[in-house]
Every structure is written in C-alpha cells, then in structure tokens.
Design a protein that fits this description.
With 315 residues, the protein is α/β, with parallel strands linked by helices. The protein has a domain at 2-165 and 216-244: NAD(P)-binding Rossmann-like Domain (Rossmann fold, 3-Layer(aba) Sandwich), CATH 3.40.50. The chain contains ten helices and 14 strands. It has helices at residues 10-21, 53-62, 77-82, 84-105, 138-151, 184-194, 219-234, 252-263, 287-293, 302-314; strands at 2-5, 26-30, 45-47, 67-70, 109-115, 156-162, 164-166, 197-201, 213-214, 216-218, 240-244, 250-251, 268-272, 281-282. It has a seven-stranded parallel beta sheet, with helices on both faces. Strands 12-9-14 form a three-stranded mixed beta sheet. Strands 7-10 form a two-stranded parallel sheet. Helix 6 (184-194) crosses helix 8 (252-263), helix 6 (184-194) packs across helix 10 and helix 8 (252-263) crosses helix 10 (302-314).
C-alpha cells in the first residue's frame, strides 16, 4: 500500500492514477485546501492536515503503508513572498510531521516532490542536480529545507526536482484546477477562452525575447517518474535526487503563440511588473532520471502539452 500526501491536488492526483494503473494499492491523504475529492477518482481518501502527526501515523498503520509519496505543500512563488510563515509551517513543518509519523509507523521509503526553484538563478543552464542551491523565493527556500529534513532523517528517499508542471491527462479526466490560478498555460488558455487579456510579468529579462524561459514538463510524465521512483525503493534499491524536465525552455511569448495556435482564438496580452522571485531562465538536464530510472518524458512538444490542457479546461 502506498500513501500519497496531497494526492487530491494537480500533480498528486495524476500520480495517484498512474500508481493505480501500475497495479499499486493507494490511499490519499489531503486536507482539500488545494485539492478536490473527486480528483482521487474513487481511491480511499483520508481528509487530514499534514501537521496532524498523530492522524498521519494512524493512517500509515491502519493501511499498512509500505512507502509514501509526498506532494502536500504550498507551491506558489508569489504567495510565498507575501505569506512566508504559511510556507514554512505547511512545507517544512509539514515535512517534519510526516517524517515523525513515518518513523512512528515504521515506514522508511519516501518519494518527495521538490522543485527547480531550489536552484534560484543558476550560473548556467541547463541545470544539473549539483547546481548550487540559491533560491530566490520563500517557496524555493522551504523546498530546499524540506530536502534537508529528509536528508537528515532515516528514510530512503527519491527526491524529484521538477520544472514547470503543465498539461492534463490525455483523456481530459484530470486537469489543472487552482483557485486562484497562477500558472501561465491555464491562465493563457482561460484568457483565450474568455476573450480576456493575459498579463505578462515582465518583458525585460536577459532572454532572447525579454520574457521568462521555463522548462514545461507534462504532468503525465511527472506521474510516470513517480511510479518509477517508488518502484525503485520498493525493490530495495537506494534513493536518489533527480531533475525532471524536458531539457528545453520556452519563453512566455512562445507559450502565448502555442495557445493561439491550439485554441484558434486571439489572445490579447499586456505587460505587467516582474514577479518577485522569478529567475530569467530555468531548464533542466535530466539524464540522471533516464540512467537511474529509465525515465524519459514522452510529451515534449509544447503544442501537445497545451492541447491536453485546453481539452481538460474546455471539458
């Protein structure tokens, strides 16, 4: 049995579905502050706070959990700069709570959802796993702290630092639902759908067209990586830290053009101020995930990623 914390959220729900499809029994633990109960698609759901160590430990014992996949966290760069205490409490302290519960229940295997935000502004791109940690945002700082808590614990862990999760399940059963939405692709799609204007946060970055460049990784590819990661641990192999990305960066303006092509609709834009904590360019080297896990992203065409997101949004 596997426990998925945050399994009712965007990435966690896709991972839960992929784990079940791979033959694993799964129970989801989520406080539903960001997730949706229908996103677990009928899998067992325990509604609880990640800071409730006692409830976590009871859930681990009651369901005879063998390994945990930890997605539960606050994940917005802008919000983290405005509400740092919230991010430290939920992210770092929540991880401490989970690790304490795992120790009490005798569960020693963990797959952790980390982020490229731990790197900050790298000296060069693409970034590899040994790129120094210089996070620009409180979000990135808390994720780096979560990695540290895990490294200092007794669990065997696979740590995935992933880049910009995007897209939706290819059958449109699961998609991206945030309130408020802050991610570029769904924001651009909603603006195109509604005839609204998309605000571009800064056009004076040191990039080819002045807008931020990001590595967009399909959420189904992320889910598949988590299946491979937990299977590695269940087979008795050692943990690892690996980037999950496509190795290719797309600028905000390139995303805007992809949205126009996919939707066939005009998309008006306006330039707003930069968001605090946003590096100019982030994209990955992901060879370690391929060599250690046999994982390679299958959906690397940005138009396909946008098409899947559009289909889920329209439905």
């Amino acid at each position: 049995m596997l426990l998925v914390t945050g399994g009712a959220g965007y990435i966690g729900s896709h991972a839960t579905r992929a784990l079940a499809a791979a033959g694993h029994d799964v129970v989801v633990y989520d406080d539903l502050s960001e997730g949706f109960s229908d996103a677990v698609l009928g899998k067992p759901l325990v509604v609880g706070d990640i800071l409730d160590t006692e409830k976590l430990q009871k859930t681990l014992k009651d369901h005879a959990v063998d390994a945990v996949l930890h997605f539960a966290a606050r994940c917005y760069v802008g919000e983290s700069m405005q509400k740092p205490d919230l991010y430290w409490r939920v992210n770092r302290d929540g991880t401490r709570s989970l690790l304490k519960a795992m120790a009490g229940a005798g569960v020693g295997k963990l797959v952790f959802s980390s982020t490229c935000a731990v790197y900050g502004v790298p000296d060069s791109v693409p970034m590899h796993e040994d790129t120094p940690h210089r996070p620009l945002s409180v979000y990135g700082e808390t994720k780096a702290a979560m990695e540290g808590e895990i490294a200092d614990s007794d669990v065997e862990a696979v740590v995935f630092r992933y880049f910009n999760a995007a897209g939706a399940s290819s059958d449109a059963v699961l998609g991206e639902r945030h309130d408020p939405e802050t991610h570029l692709i769904p924001l651009a799609l909603m603006a195109a759908r509604d005839g609204a204007t998309l605000t571009i946060n800064g056009d004076d970055y040191p990039t080819p067209d002045g807008t931020c460049v990001r590595d967009y990784i399909h959420v189904m590819d992320l889910a598949d990586a988590h299946v491979a990661g937990v299977q590695r641990l269940l087979a008795g192999n050692s943990g690892l830290t690996a980037n999950l990305g496509s190795g290719r960066g797309y600028s905000v303006l390139e995303i805007v053009e992809a949205v126009r092509r996919v939707t066939g609709r005009p998309l008006a834009t306006q330039v707003g101020p930069r968001r605090p904590g946003d590096p100019p360019a982030l994209y990955a080297r992901a060879e370690r995930a391929e060599s250690e896990l046999g994982w390679r992203p299958q959906f690397t065409d940005i138009q396909v990623i946008v098409e899947h997101a559009w289909r889920a949004l329209r439905d």
